[in-house]
Design a protein that fits this description.
382 residues, alpha/beta, Rossmann fold, 2 domains, seven-stranded parallel sheet
Length: 382
């Protein structure tokens, strides 16, 4: 089965899909990138099966330069004669796949993988974006989504068959580092949609009550300078560390000792970062979004008193959904109650149990390999 990935070849997310797909001998994998390719692609897909369009798309859209490369892409795809075009991020690369299939009369079917803002944000920016998203979804024989919330939105916009599974972990990380009770980690992009200012605000409220509290800020973005100024104005410069973008190994070393993980975006699907944090036995503090509620679950029973803490989710997934109107002055006390009072040498045994339950849930429900295998089987049947 000849399958062409269409996306950003410099993205770690597309690379992750390529790694998973390349492990299946029944798939002959090709790839077209609007940019170049990450070096790791050379070990996964031969150079003669790759096309780099070498454009520089902007995240905000309006990428005429990308559309100008459509003739090159269409001609290349016609020579490839694939069974499937697998487009990632529907309002850009999905558009390219749809236009190429129509313009060059390709026999390939389209599989479209939604990434989040292409469904939850872009269609709300005007009728033209909504129309385009609808056309792409209708052109797909099958689509994938990483949350039930996003899947429902895709169906509203015209999608037919939608497979829903987490964009999960390729393997469980090692976790043999003792947790620091008041160490927080965050690694979402320092961009407005991820609300890093809110993360700093929330941490400041905790730090006011807990002298031991420390925050490590991974990743980078356009708001970094403003965030560093915010931290300084709050008198927290010695308690907040900005480390910028780091590789997966270095990031793992930051997850490992952190008890808490902060992710407070204004819009999101199921975040890989949240799943990674849970696999490292962190307790996530998340914004009040439908996909976050899916991750942490609802109802059930466990080691946390649900009546006493209605925002603490159970069922083997432990963390806290933080509503925008919640009283931050009491947040440190709520976190302390959440992890319980059972302690050995000042270390919360209850918190360790909650973290271990998070890791076990990820192992059972959020591994990427089994999901991709099911996806391939469905492509074959179609």
């Amino acid at each position: 089965m000849r399958l062409v990935l269409i996306g950003d070849g410099e993205s770690p997310h597309l690379l992750k899909w390529a790694r998973a797909l390349s492990q299946h001998r029944e798939v002959e994998l090709w790839a077209a990138s609007t940019r170049g390719f990450a070096p790791e692609f050379q070990f996964l897909i031969p150079e003669d099966r790759r096309l780099a369009l070498n454009t520089d798309p902007a995240h905000a859209g309006g990428n005429i330069a990308v559309l100008k490369q459509l003739p090159a892409l269409g001609a290349w795809l016609r020579r490839v004669d694939a069974d499937w075009l697998h487009a990632h991020y529907l309002t850009s690369h999905g558009t390219l796949a749809w236009a190429a299939r129509r313009g060059w009369k390709l026999r390939a079917k389209i599989a479209g993988s939604a990434w989040g803002s292409d469904i939850l944000v872009t269609p709300n920016q005007g009728w033209a974006y909504r129309w385009l998203t609808t056309q792409v979804l209708k052109a797909c024989a099958i689509t994938t989504s990483d949350s039930e919330h996003m899947s429902a939105r895709m169906r509203e916009l015209g999608a037919g068959e939608v497979m829903t599974f987490p964009f999960g972990l390729e393997q469980l990380p090692r976790q043999n580092v003792r947790k620091q009770p008041w160490l927080f980690f965050t690694n979402r992009g320092l961009e407005p949609i991820y609300r890093p200012h809110r993360v700093i605000e929330v941490f400041a409220a905790i730090a006011a009550k807990q002298p031991e509290a420390r925050l490590v800020v991974g990743n980078d973005g356009s708001l970094r300078t403003a965030l560093e100024a915010q931290v300084a104005s709050l008198g927290l410069a010695d308690r907040v560390e900005f480390i910028g973008r780091v590789d997966a190994t270095s990031q793992g070393r930051r997850y490992a000792p952190a008890r808490w993980f902060l992710s407070l975006p204004e819009s999101d699907s199921v975040s890989v970062s949240v799943l990674e944090a849970m696999a490292h036995e962190c307790l996530p503090i998340l914004s009040d979004l439908p996909a976050n509620d899916e991750v942490l679950g609802t109802g059930g029973s466990g080691s946390v008193d649900a009546a006493m803490h209605p925002n603490v989710k159970l069922l083997g997934r432990h963390g806290l959904i933080l509503k925008d109107g919640d009283d931050l002055a009491t947040l440190a006390d709520r976190l302390q109650l959440m992890v319980g009072q059972s302690a050995v040498a000042g270390h919360s045994v209850d918190a360790d149990r909650l973290g271990a339950a998070n890791r076990a849930w990820v192992a059972e429900h959020a591994m990427f390999g089994p999901a991709v295998k099911t996806f391939i089987e469905r492509l074959k049947s179609l």
